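Much of our argument rests on the idea that a fold can be written as discrete symbols. Part of our work consisted of pairing the sequence of a single chain with a tokenised description of its backbone. The amino acid sequence and the backbone structure tokens for this protein are reproduced below.
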Amino acid sequence: VQLQASGGGLVQPGGSLRLSCAVSGSILRIDDMGWYRQAPGKQRDLVATITSGGSTSYEESVKGRFTISRDNAKNTVYLQMNSLKPEETAVYYCNANLIYYNPAQELVASRSWGQGTQVTVSS
């Protein structure tokens, strides 16, 4: 089971990026999914979450600018980020609550993380 994040890069202030995070492996079910970010020297903070039914929640500072969505058929979560600010430069991590069978065919419930993708907002 693996979460693979992509879509980060360098963008100017006010610009946009779309992050993707695909879950691969023998997944039985994916519950809540989310995006977090961690700036240098700071803790990892929650940015947005989405339930399996599509209900969303956002950290206050990104409301109206960021949109989290998911494609359950593709086991993928997205984060559309608009009007980006320099202070939002960070490594962005995806997260998912997974139910799956391990190689021993045991049912596992796990909160799993992607590897992170760098977002740099700078002119």
Q: What stands out?
A: The CA atoms of residues 30 and 111 lie 10 Å apart. The mean pLDDT is 96.
